[in-house]
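Same chain as my last thread, 329 residues:
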Amino acid sequence: MSLPSLDDLLGTARVVALPLATRFRGVDVREALLLEGPEGWTEFSPFVEYDDAEAATWLAAALEFGWHPLPAAARTEVPVNATMPAVPAASVPEVLQRFDGCRTVKVKVAERGQVLADDVARVRAVRAAVGPEGRVRIDANAGWNVDEAEHAIHALAEFDLEYVEQPCASVEELAEVRRRVKYMGIPIAADESVRKATDPLAVARAGAADLLVIKAQPLGGVRRALEIVAEAGLPAVVSSALDTSIGLSMGVALAASLPGLDYDCGLGTASLFTADVTTTPLRASAGALPTGRVTPDEGSLAAVAAPAERREWWLERLRRCHAILAAQA
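reply #2:
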C-alpha cells in the first residue's frame, strides 16, 4: 500500500472530542482525528495512552480505509449488541433505551473500584430487561486473575451467559480459565489478547479461546483483520474501539466482509455519545447497522471540534506515526 504524503493528511485533518452520556473505559470524552481520502472519510483514534508504535498500526488501518477500495461485502447490514457500561443496576433500563431493537447486551464487569456484587446486580438487571430470549455477554477487559475469573463466572452463570470476553490478561490465563469452566458450557472470547498482541494468532494456537473479538483499527485494517480470522479458524465478533460514526463504518465494513457472522457485533457504541460528527450517527435501528461510508457534516464537526491544544497534540501524533509507517515502507 503506497503511503499518502504527510501534507495530504494534514490538509484534511479534523480533530474532534465526543462527549459520552456515561463514563466508559475511564473517559468522559472520546477524541479522534478524522481524515478525508480518495475513497472517503476515515478515522485515526488510538487511545491516548498508547505509544507511537502501537498507534502507527491504527494509522495504517485509517489509511487503508480512506485510500483503498473496500473488500466485497457479504451482507448489507450488520446486527449489533447494546453496550452496558459499569453503571449501577438501577441505570440499566435508561442505558438500554439508547439501543433500538438490540437483542444482545454486552455488560462491562470487573470495573476498577467495584466488586463482584456490583457485577452480579448489573447483569441481573440486564437479564431482567432483555428477558429469557435475549443474549447477555460480559466483558472483563482482563480485570481478573484466574481464580477471580472462575469465581465470577460461577456467580454470573445463572444469567445464561452467551460468552465471557477477556476474563484475564495473558493467553496462558485464558487457556486455564477456559479449561476450568468448560464443563459449564460458557465460551471464552479473546479481545486484548488478539488486538494488543505481537502475535494475534497465539490465542488460537494455544486453544485459549472459543471465539475472537476483532477490531479494524488496532489490527491494522479491514484486510489484515480478515486474514487473522481466516488463519485462526475461529468465529469472530467485530467490535468498536469507541469510535466516531466514521470509525464505526470501518468496523461495519469488516463485519460485512466476513464469510460468516454468527454473533451480533459490538458496533452500536455511537449510542453512548451525546454528539457525533454527523447529524445522522451510525446508531442501531431494529438492532442493526447499515453498510456504507459515513460523511461528516460541517456543523457537527464544528460542534465537537477539540480545543486547540488537543488538536496540536493529535497532529503531532499523526506526524510521528506517519514517520514510523514511512520507515517501515
